[in-house]
């Protein structure tokens, strides 16, 4: 998603059923950022504390605040 409105990005990201949401950048991760899908798009999450809590619906929202 590309937008100048942080409020709009957060509201959209919360409603989207996806494991990772990128705002104003793409394919940026940190070593401890959990990743994985929802429903049948993956088996749980990898990395971070979420890796052992696979029963949660975890979402990662990544927002470009400066250069990614």
What features would you highlight for this structure?
little secondary structure; 2 strands
Molecular structure report:
This protein is low in regular secondary structure. It has one domain (6-63). 15% of the residues lie in helices and 12% in strands. It has one helix and two strands, in the order αββ. It has one helix at residues 6-15, and strands at 20-23, 60-63. Strands 1-2 form a two-stranded parallel ribbon. The chain is globular. The two termini are 15 Å apart. The mean pLDDT is 75.
Q: How do the helices and strands line up, and which of them pair or pack?
A:
Layout: H1 6-15, E1 20-23, E2 60-63
Parallel strand pairs: 1-2
Shape: globular
Structural class assignment? little secondary structure
How many strands?
Answer: 2
Q: How far apart are the first and last residues' alpha carbons, in Å? A: 15 Å
Order of helices and strands: HEE
State the assembly state of the protein chains.
single chain
Mean model confidence by pLDDT: 75
Assess the beta-strand content as a share of residues. 5-15%
Biggest β-sheet, characterized?
2 strands, parallel
Given as residue ranges, the uncertain stretches (5+ residues, pLDDT < 50) are none
Number of domains: 1
Distinct helical segment count: 1
* Main β-sheet, spatial strand arrangement: 1-2
Q: Tell me the helix content.
A: 10-25%
Q: Cα-atom Rg, whole angstroms? A: 12 Å
